[in-house]
Amino acid sequence: MSAQKIINFTPCPCQASQNGNYLAFWVKPDVLVNKFIDEPDGICNIFRCRAGHVIPLARKDIGTWMADIDDHFRESHPPLTSAQAVTEANRCYFCYDAPCTEACPTDIDVPGFIRGIASGNMAGAAIKILQENIFGGSCARVCPTEILCEHACVWTKAGGPAVQIGALQRVATDWQMAQPTHPFIRAPATGKHIAIIGAGPAGLSAAHGMARRGHDVTVYDTKPKPGGLNEYGIAAYKLVDDFAAREIEFLLGIGGITLEHNKTLGDDLSLDDLARNFDAVFLALGQAAVNMAGVTGEHLPSVRNAVDFIAELRQAPDKSALKIPRRVLVIGGGNTAIDAATQAKLLGAEDVTILYRKGRAQMSATAIEQNWALTHHVVIHFHAAPVRIESETGELCVVTESRRYPADLVLRAVGQKFHPLDGLEIENGRIKIDQNHATSHPKIFAGGDCVPGLDLTVRAVQDGKCAARAIHEFLGCD
Ligand SMILES: Cc1cc2nc3c(=O)[nH]c(=O)nc-3n(C[C@H](O)[C@H](O)[C@H](O)COP(=O)(O)OP(=O)(O)OC[C@H]3O[C@@H](n4cnc5c(N)ncnc54)[C@H](O)[C@@H]3O)c2cc1C
Ligand code: SF4
Among 141, 156, 169, 463, which residue has the most ligand 2 atoms within 8 Å of its CB, making it the best to mutate? Predict the structure, then answer.
């Protein structure tokens, strides 16, 4: 639904914008802000255009806007139709030694699964993906394919648009998830019992790999829901319709996996007890702590961690009930900064600015992610390193060397870090492992964001898959 359809507004007589859609886009958040900030009872019958002129607005229009907020969080990339999928699959050259497979961190046979789609063998396509990557459905939606498989596609090298590998992967995995049966069969029971701490992509990928090999698995997580950042962190418009939960339900279809929620390592569970009571332990703890920006004033009220803001948004049963102030500043240059800023905008903030201390090329958010934020009217200021945050005049303000940025909310998105853990060797602030994912403790393995490496869902899934294989060998079962 376009902005114009959502709200029936009167363009401002000042003609601040010649484009009706554009004006509507900017006006609507203002309405939302007035409602939330100035008139919490929802009585609001004016809005201001960008030039500050006040214009009457019928209350029914506000109701329409509020009712449609979920529409703002609709899927960023809708699925291909069956016909589009076949056409797209037939663009693949089915390269020998395919560079896309080389570039996929989970080693999916990309031409192999695409050939399945082209020939109508959807079950074959899905199994080729899922045997390497049981989170093939979420990876299809969240992988930065522009720097992975699609970047390596020969079409990209030739200057044309890459084959849409992520979108095709989604077609096959969605087909599989709609089938009544799980595509894998468990090996006969081994009598071995593995503990996994962390029910994110790394932990559950390992759980599936071990359950397939006939082991019993218990997965503990401190949170009330499984999924890790798939459930609490990834932007709402990438994983819609409770996809994270549906994918886990599909994954658990293998059998032999028990989930234990609200159980925290270091509180309810200890490494020593786990190592004593289980045949092996896999740690998939992610990065539970966040970095500070390192400037004075960041403990002021209205300065929040971007990941907490996103988690609250992801878990909100009604996004229109979330309060978002008018001016939001996001400090950081990664995907978390982009996701937090874009979602703040979609919630209705009027001015959203990202402050990044270096230049565009140094930003860890990919060019596609940056453009995604820009097309949602997020402003990015490069070479803008905050030196302090203050509120002396009563107004929250982020100060850089050259400017003052007034704000109503500051979101800190300067990276996550591994929460310290006693009893294991640490390397670069994360758990040290060898090539078999073994830690310094003989029965304990680790993978995903809690060990050194790229912080991507697909890498975490690969770690879980490889760790399951290594633990199986460690148990003498091969
Ligand atoms: C905001 C944000 C957006 C992102 N967007 C993308 C994206 O678009 N694409 C992409 O590829 N990657 C993205 N990532 C990165 C990706 O989400 C991670 O790399 C991936 O989730 C790592 O998986 P994991 O299983 O290692 O850790 P997590 O997903 O973090 O899971 C760790 C689990 O361990 C649990 N846990 C932690 N400590 C304990 C404890 N002491 N006891 C018990 N349980 C514990 C946690 O509750 C959690 O469930 C994003 C990350 C963030 C923060
Ligand atoms: S898992 Fe990700 S990187 Fe690998 S082929 Fe699929 S979309 Fe590409």
Answer: 169
One domain for residues 213 and 266:
yes
Q: Identify which ligand lies nearest to the alpha carbon of 130.
A: 2
Count Cβ atoms below 10 Å from residue 192 Cβ, excluding itself.
19
Q: Are residues 445 and 395 in the same domain?
A: no
Interval 161-181 mean pLDDT: 97
Q: What is the mean pLDDT of residues 432-459?
A: 97
Tell me, in angstroms, the distance from the centre of ligand 2 to residue 239's CA: 16
Ligand nearest to the CA of 460: 1
Per-residue confidence (pLDDT) for residue 147, from 0 to 100: 95
Residues 406 and 422 placed together within one structural domain of the fold:
no
Residue 72 lies in a domain: no
**Helix (H/G/I), strand (E/B), else coil: 176:** helix
Contacts by residues 57-61 (CB-CB < 8 Å, ≥ 24 positions apart): 57/9, 57/10, 57/31, 58/8, 61/7, 61/8, 61/9, 61/31
- Of 1-15, 51-65, 73-87, which one has max mean pLDDT? 73-87
264-294 pLDDT, tens digit each:
999 999 999 999 999 999 999 999 999 999 9
Does one domain contain both 126 and 142? yes
Among 133, 142, 143, 229, residue to substitute to test ligand 1 (most atoms within 8 Å of Cβ): 229
Q: How many CA atoms lie within 13 A of 331 on its CB side?
A: 28
Nearest partner of 144 among 370, 465, 378, judged by Cα: 370
pLDDT at 332 over 80: yes
**What is the domain extent for residue 350?**
290-415
Atom of ligand 2 nearest to the CA of 149: 8
Best residue among 80, 143, 234, 247 to mutate for probing ligand 2's pocket (most ligand atoms within 8 Å of CB) is 143
Q: How confident is the model at residue 142 (pLDDT cuts 50, 70, 90)?
A: very high
Cα-to-centroid distance, 238 and ligand 2 (Å): 15
Confirm whether 319 is domain-assigned: yes
